[in-house]
Structures are given as structure tokens and as C-alpha cells.
Design a protein that fits this description.
CATH class of the largest domain: Alpha Beta
Structural class: alpha/beta
Distance between the termini: 51 Å
CATH architecture of the largest domain: 2-Layer Sandwich
CATH superfamily of the largest domain: Aconitase, domain 3
CATH topology of the largest domain: Aconitase, domain 3
Number of helices: 17
Low-confidence stretches: none
Number of strands: 19
Strand order of the largest sheet: 5-4-3-6-7
Radius of gyration: 21 Å
């Protein structure tokens, strides 16, 4: 029987099945962060310990400060945040879990350091108490977010009861034009199918445009699979993935490496595998994208204009668009390039990797930002790498703040907020009301597009600024 990549991973991890489709799935890697204290507390209340501590990895990322990091935990302005950072360290000590804390050279955003350290590998099942765990699927893993009760089950048993999801293949054919990135691809997908378009499905992203993306670009695409309603996002591993993983600290080595790659090469979906649904886009027609509303599906090419809610199909869509326009203070028919931008944020598990920093620096080099902007690299390791490449100097000389690693302004953590009524060009993944602070208005876009907005103070087609560079 022809199998999809998801079928192969699912079937190889099922421990037990119940009538009705529920399966007990073995979990290979489990990540935890500061928000995991509920699960650890419930476990301790029952007198239990983590069953397989070597398969759980902890990182402080959501509540760590990005400014004043030399002061350590004390730099966190919120007492609850400080307590959660310390509690994570204590829970890891008690349970003998590897912990990449605030002072660790390997610290970073959980969905950045997983691939970076080689913990994320093809064919694995990976969980974390964070919805954007789908990111890890870019390397050919089945990765998904969990709630506190599910996390407790994983910590106690290294297994999880799940209902088998359906499969959706999204093909993006053709070749992407210069200036069009993985962020633009995934925003175009969500704009087409909607934020509920993949509900109940695991998405496999495929097609020439997807294969043409770097590993970093693929991580961006899978990161936002959850924003399309997907249970997970996946991309079949190939030589780009193997080259990316080779030599990383937790990747297989020597003879184990050869055996691993041989097994990984069996994972891609069989040629005649059947998916429950299929969607196709022409990647050659895509432009740089950005959101205008308060949902990732309210996105358009940079050359577009704000739609009139009356022209949209469906009463719910019209109502949401009207509410979004009121919150964002925008008018139907307005050109996107007429939207002013007051702040810009570069970072997050969506676009905080070295390729993202390089793309923004290429736009900013030798130029000056006209609005307040800041960069929070996705990990401490890549922060050092960027500094070795001189990228930090480009940002600083352009008037952009160079901060420490953390989730930062993606979710308005530790003071990294946007003031009420101001607009932010954000490289993160969510733009709902208040996501970056009460009353803040968020426009999602790629790192290069955010850099262009830094230079002009408005939405700008970055391709115009890249001409001649």
C-alpha cells in the first residue's frame, strides 16, 4: 500500500490502538519551557517523576528578558516571569532534565534551538506545550503542540493518546521570484485556504517552490501551519536537511549517521500515496505578502489594496473584516503601501534565524531606520554567529536595537510591547488584537519587508530597495 510520510511516521510510533481511531503514540522528543509548570506541578502532586528525562529538553524562552540580559533573571521586570524561569530550572533539576537556561550559551527560542542543536530529526514524533511546535516538521518530523494535561501524560509515560488526523497536501509549484520568501509563501497559503482551512489535518507542503526553499525557509512555512488550522506541518527531508543536520551536537555521528540517513531516505511520501485533500498554488505568481487585518488569513500581496468587506464571501468573513478594519484604523480601497508603520520587530520562532537576519541586514546596510525597531535573534548561538558576521553592526549603525534571544515582541513579553494605537511591522506569526500589546496593531511580513518598513516608515515593496544590491 502506498503511504504518505505522515502514515509512515504514525504507524511506526503507534503502541496501542482503540476502536474509533484513538492511538497511543510514542513520543521521541518532548520540549518544555517556562509555561510547563502546571504539568510538572500536577505530576509532583501525584508523587510521579518524569519517566524518560533524557527525552525531554527544557529551555527558557517565553518570559526571558531581551534587554539587560547581563543581570540574568533579575532583568525580567515581572515577578511572575522571574518565578517561572526559576521554577523551570528547579523542575529540571529535580527530574534530571537537560536545561538550556537563561545563562546557557545554547539558550534560545525552543523551535529555533531544536533544529539548531540537531535535536529535531526526520521521522521523529516531537511535542511541546506551544502551538508552533509544527515548526520542527520542516525537517521531516511529526511535531505538534500540546496542552498541560497532555504534557503531563508525556512526562509521566513518554506516550500520548491521539486521534489520527487526516492528511492535506499543499503543493506550491514553480519558482519563487526574487524577494519572495517562505514567509510570503505561507501567508499566501493561509490567505487562500483560511485559518480553518486545514483543521483536523496534517499538512504536507510539497512542490518545486517548497523544495527550492532553504531549511530556514521551510521552518518558517511549517511554523505557520498552525495558523491555517493544521495539526502539524511537514516537508519531506532531502539532501538540504541532511547537510543542515550533519555535525550538529545531538545529530547522529559516524556509522550512526549513515544508518540514520539511510532510514530518513525512506520517509518521503510514496509517489502514488493518497491524501485526504489537495491544494495547489503557483509559486511563480507570488509577491511579497503582508497582513492588513487581525488574522493571518487577512493577507494580500504588497501591491494590493484593502478589500471592501461587502465584497467578501460569507457573513462571518465580512463581519470579521469590518471589525478588523475598525481595530486597525484602515479604509477599504486603501493601497497597502499607504499604510504607515510606527515600529518594527525582527525575531520569533517564525523568522529569527540567521538567514532572516542576513536578509534584513542586506536591506538595511548603509541606510538609516526612521522608526524605532529591534532585533531579537532566535538563539544565543546564532546571535554570536550574526555578530561574527558583522550583522549586529549593520543593525546598530542603521539605528536598530540589537537585543538578546527570546520570544520578545511576538507575544509582548517582558516589556517588549508596542504602545496602543501604533502599528508594528512584525516577522512573527500572529496579529490578533492585542498580540503585541493592548491596542497595538500588527502587520505580519517577512524580515526583508520589515527592514524596508524600518527605512521608510510605511509598508514598502522591498524589491524596490533591493534593486542594484
Amino acid at each position: 500500500m502506498a503511504l504518505t510520510m505522515f502514515d509512515k511516521i504514525w504507524m511506526s510510533h503507534v503502541v496501542l490502538e482503540r476502536p474509533g481511531g484513538d492511538a497511543l503514540l510514542h513520543i521521541d522528543r518532548n520540549f518544555v519551557h517556562e509555561g510547563s509548570f502546571h504539568a510538572f506541578g500536577a505530576l509532583a502532586k501525584e508523587g510521579r517523576r518524569v519517566r524518560k528525562p533524557r527525552q525531554t529538553f527544557a529551555v527558557a524562552d517565553h518570559y526571558v528578558p531581551t534587554v539587560g540580559r547581563e543581570r540574568g533573571v533579575e532583568a525580567a521586570e515581572d515577578a511572575d516571569a522571574r518565578n517561572m524561569i526559576r521554577l523551570l530550572e528547579e523542575n529540571c533539576r529535580v527530574n534530571d532534565i537537560a536545561h538550556f537556561g537563561i545563562d546557557d550559551d545554547r539558550q534560545g527560542i525552543v523551535h529555533v534551538i531544536g533544529p539548531e542543536l540537531g535535536l529535531t530529526q526526520p521521522g521523529l514524533t516531537i511535542t511541546c506545550g506551544d502551538s508552533h511546535t509544527s515548526t520542527h516538521g520542516a525537517l521531516g518530523a511529526f511535531a505538534f503542540g500540546t496542552g498541560a494535561s497532555q504534557l503531563k501524560q508525556i512526562l509521566a509515560t513518554q506516550c500520548l493518546w491521539l486521534k489520527r488526523p487526516k492528511t492535506l497536501r499543499i503543493r506550491v509549484d514553480g519558482t519563487l521570484a526574487p524577494g519572495v520568501t517562505g514567509k510570503d509563501v505561507v501567508l499566501a497559503i493561509i490567505a487562500k485556504i483560511g485559518t480553518a482551512g486545514a483543521t483536523g489535518h496534517v499538512i504536507e507542503f510539497a512542490g518545486a517552490a517548497i523544495r527550492g526553499l532553504s531549511v530556514e525557509g521551510r521552518l518558517t512555512v511549517c511554523n505557520m501551519a498552525i495558523e491555517a488550522g493544521g495539526r502539524a506541518g511537514m516537508i519531506a527531508p532531502d539532501d538540504k536537511v541532511y547537510d543542515y543536520l550533519h555535525g550538529r551536537p545531538y545529530a547522529p555521528a559516524n556509522a550512526d549517521w549513515d544508518r540514520a540517513v539511510a532510514q530518513w531516505r525512506t520517509l518521503p511520501s510514496d509517489a502514488d500515496a493518497k491524501f485526504d485533500r489537495e491544494v495547489t498554488l503557483d509559486g511563480s505568481k507570488l509577491e511579497p505578502m503582508l497582513t492588513w487585518g487581525t488574522s493571518p488569513e487577512e493577507a494580500l500581496p504588497v501591491s494590493g489594496r484593502i478589500p471592501d468587506p461587502k465584497t467578501l464571501p460569507g457573513a462571518d468573513q465580512r463581519a470579521h473584516a469590518e471589525q478588523a478594519l475598525a481595530y486597525m484604523d484602515l479604509k477599504p480601497g486603501m493601497a497597502l503601501t499607504d499604510i504607515r508603520i510606527d515600529r518594527a520587530f525582527l525575531g520569533s520562532c517564525t523568522n529569527g534565524r540567521i538567514e532572516d537576519l542576513r536578509a534584513a541586514a542586506a536591506v538595511l546596510k548603509g541606510r538609516k531606520a526612521v522608526i524605532p525597531a529591534w532585533v531579537s535573534p532566535g538563539s544565543t548561538t546564532l546571535k554570536r554567529q550574526a555578530e561574527a558576521e558583522g550583522l549586529d553592526r549593520i543593525f546598530i549603525e542603521a539605528g536598530v536595537e540589537w537585543r538578546a534571544s527570546g520570544c520578545s515582541s511576538c507575544a509582548a513579553m517582558n516589556g517588549d510591547k508596542v504602545p496602543p494605537g501604533l502599528r508594528c511591522a512584525s516577522t512573527a506569526n500572529r496579529n490578533f488584537e492585542g498580540r503585541q500589546g493592548k491596542g497595538a496593531r500588527t502587520h505580519l511580513m517577512s524580515p526583508a519587508m520589515a527592514a524596508a518598513a524600518m527605512l521608510t516608515g510605511r509598508v514598502t515593496d522591498v524589491r524596490q530597495l533591493l534593486q542594484g544590491r
